Amino acid sequence: MSRPMLARLPGRLLARLLVLALTLLAASFLVFGAIRLLPGDPARLLAGPQARAAAVAALHHQLGLDRPFLRQYGDFLLGAVHGRLGTSTVSHQPVGRELAAHAPYTIALGLLAYLLASTGGVLFGCLAAINQARLFDRLFGACTNLLVSVADFWFGLMAMELFAVRLGWLPLMGTGSPAHIVLPAITLALMPAGLIGRMTRAGMIDVLRQDYIRTATAKGLAPLAIYGRHALRNALVPIVTIVGLNLGSVIGGAVVTETLFAWPGLGALLVEAVKYRDYPVIQGVALVAVTAVVVMNLLAELAIALLDPRLRQA
User: Fold this and answer.
1) Is the whole-model pTM more than 0.85?
2) In a 10 Å sphere around its CB, with 0-12 CB exposed, 13-18 middle and 19+ buried, how is residue 142 labelled?
3) Sign (positive or negative) of CA dihedral 217, 222, 223, 225
4) Across the 314 residues of the chain, what is the mean pLDDT of every consecutive 10-residue run?
5) Helix axis angle, 182-208 relative to 95-130, nearest 10°?
6) Does domain 95-312 have CATH number 3.20.20.370?
7) Whole-angstrom Cα distance, residue 244 to residue 33?
8) Which residue ranges make up each domain of the chain?
9) Would you give the DSSP letter of residue 173?
């Protein structure tokens, strides 16, 4: 990398970080406003259906729900900047403590699912491109169509029925052993794997049509060197892009998957928070999810810039 390129990197990185901060600010405002449009009154839910109006009004004041919207948002934003996300209205525990208790489960599940989706999608996408228009490629197309069009929870239910109930190979739900994470991780990885596989196949087919690949084949290079060192390396830019963008699918799918398999991660915490209109917990989980997606996209952009010299010069 030349010195002018190195000189431009800090400025580009600062620009990306500024965009990241503005994205998080906009997302926090949208989430903060959207959850207040949910039907149901948190104070009424906490006080109970038989509570008097005075008791409900007192809870409104205690929770800060009687203050103007912008003041509520300002207090939330100021607290978030200092690492204070408020207190759960249900468990009466700091939201940061709730997130810390559930986040390791989601991180473990998400990383395993992400690894399975990326590895499987890239591997089978490459094999489909190499065997274009053959039986393997046709089967791959049918499978990816199924993966991206069928809901995650259906795959999860079928996996539970087959591998847990009928065969008894894996635990049905919950935690307690490494085997408990297998079914939810596979379920969560299926749809992103289909999307990554499609993009990998398309990128590899485009590269395999290039003249330098034909030249390498004519020179008698080993297939591993042709497909791995030359073809896949030059098809990495769209692959890295789709891998980075699919983090959102993994995080979004975790809500359904964790609930289905009784996995105590952030997705299950979010479902319970929505059920009881626990605004601080909903805001905390949403902020963590948005931050993870935005940061992953930033890392994907930086990785693409390193892989493609043309983008470093832009």
Assistant:
1) no
2) exposed
3) negative
4) 50 76 86 79 71 76 79 86 83 89 90 90 91 92 90 88 91 88 92 89 86 78 74 76 71 82 89 85 86 79 67 51
5) 40
6) no
7) 28
8) 19-81, 95-312
9) S
